[in-house]
Design goal:
Number of helices: 11
Low-confidence stretches: 1-14
CATH architecture of one domain: 3-Layer(aba) Sandwich
CATH topology of one domain: Rossmann fold
Strand content: 5-15%
Distance between the termini: 26 Å
Helix content: 40-55%
Mean pLDDT: 91
Order of helices and strands: EHEEHEHEEHEEHEHEHHHEHH
Number of strands: 11
Radius of gyration: 20 Å
Structural class: alpha/beta
CATH class of one domain: Alpha Beta
């Protein structure tokens, strides 16, 4: 499949559509901006910090600090049809995770500010990228659905839920449309953090004690995610709802490693070890969160996105993993 084959049909507009993307320099933001330029959107990229401008001359870059300088926002939002709010203080792993206060300023108050500025400027729709962690931490084979009550377990997830509530409050008061997307773990070219670490361990060919894990986890390739984001920007039935979205193929941790190894044309060296032993050792080392995510299940029911929006992931898991591996190897050599 080529880079754009299989993507949903570009929406028809009487005039060239316009969008502003916050968090444009982030992992998802870079991919989304490229996508929208290719699809002939008039695009403004918003950045929270001064720094290098957009990678394309077709993108207008704007310094837009969260929660301040409303004049800048109103100037940037002039004639904008849709805003995609990606900017966030991201989830961080570690023995001493940040407190709720560390996420409140950007994820909650910043999101409320962005929604208020959008409503003031007459933006038609605000699309917010939340997180499936709002639903919980998994641990069972039950797939989370949009009707399940939220169960955020850490400061990051609580802040994303609070941001959802703030955005809905502003939209209900002002009549602006919204769409909220809760993706699971996102992988793809340029991915960092835990997924990059897993790719690196697989490439090294080290024996990993993961063969006994029998779990299922939902993932989404960044190409599928940006395709769904654009669907939520344009589809009339996307407004006013929360959406769970994934590649549609849930996978176990051992199978993920095997398929990464296959993309690398190398072996997957896995040996059995009871998950309870892994979790006990991780607790002693202060790494419970990382190992729990390797061992436990976390799945989403994304059927409403397919049935109500007629959306299909344009790229399958194996192609997405192959692209991710090729990009990782290129960046490592560079």
């Amino acid at each position: 499949m080529g880079a754009d084959q299989g993507f949903s049909r570009k929406p028809e507009f009487a005039v060239k559509p316009s969008a502003l993307v916050t968090g444009a320099s982030g992992f998802v933001g870079v991919h989304l901006c490229r996508r929208l330029v290719e699809r002939d959107w008039r695009l403004v990229a918003g950045y929270r910090r001064m720094g290098p401008g957009p990678e394309s001359a077709a993108i207008a870059g704007e310094y837009l600090p969260l929660s301040s300088e409303p004049g800048r926002w109103q100037a940037a939002l002039g004639s904008i049809d849709c805003v995609v709010h990606l900017a966030a203080h991201v989830h961080q792993m570690g023995p001493a995770p940040p407190t709720d206060d560390a996420f409140d300023e950007i994820n909650v108050q910043g999101s409320r500010f962005v929604a208020e500025q959008c409503a003031r400027a007459g933006v038609k729709r605000l699309v917010y990228l939340s997180s499936a962690k709002v639903n919980g931490e998994g641990g069972e084979l039950h797939a989370y659905g949009v009707e399940d009550p939220p169960d955020p377990r850490d400061a990051y997830a609580r802040s994303k839920l609070a941001a959802e509530v703030a955005i809905r409050d502003v939209c209900e008061r002002t009549g602006m449309q919204f769409a909220i997307i809760r993706p699971p773990l996102v992988y793809g070219t340029g991915v960092r953090a835990n997924f990059q670490s897993l790719v690196r361990l697989t490439e090294l060919g080290l024996p990993l004690p993961l063969a006994s894990i029998d779990n299922r986890r939902s993932l989404i390739g960044v190409w599928n995610l940006v395709d769904f984001i654009e669907t939520c920007m344009t589809h009339p039935d996307a407004a006013g709802r929360v959406w769970l979205v994934s590649d549609g193929e849930d996978i176990s941790t051992p199978d993920l490693i095997r398929r990464l190894a296959r993309a690398m044309q190398g072996p997957a060296r896995l040996f059995p070890c009871p998950p309870v032993v892994l979790k006990t050792a991780a607790a002693l080392a202060g790494r419970s969160g990382e190992v729990r995510r390797l061992c436990d299940s976390f799945t989403l029911d994304s059927s409403p996105a397919r049935e109500l929006l007629n959306w299909k992931p344009p790229m399958n898991l194996d192609e997405g993993l192959a692209r991710t591996v090729a990009d990782y190897r290129m960046r490592r050599h560079v």
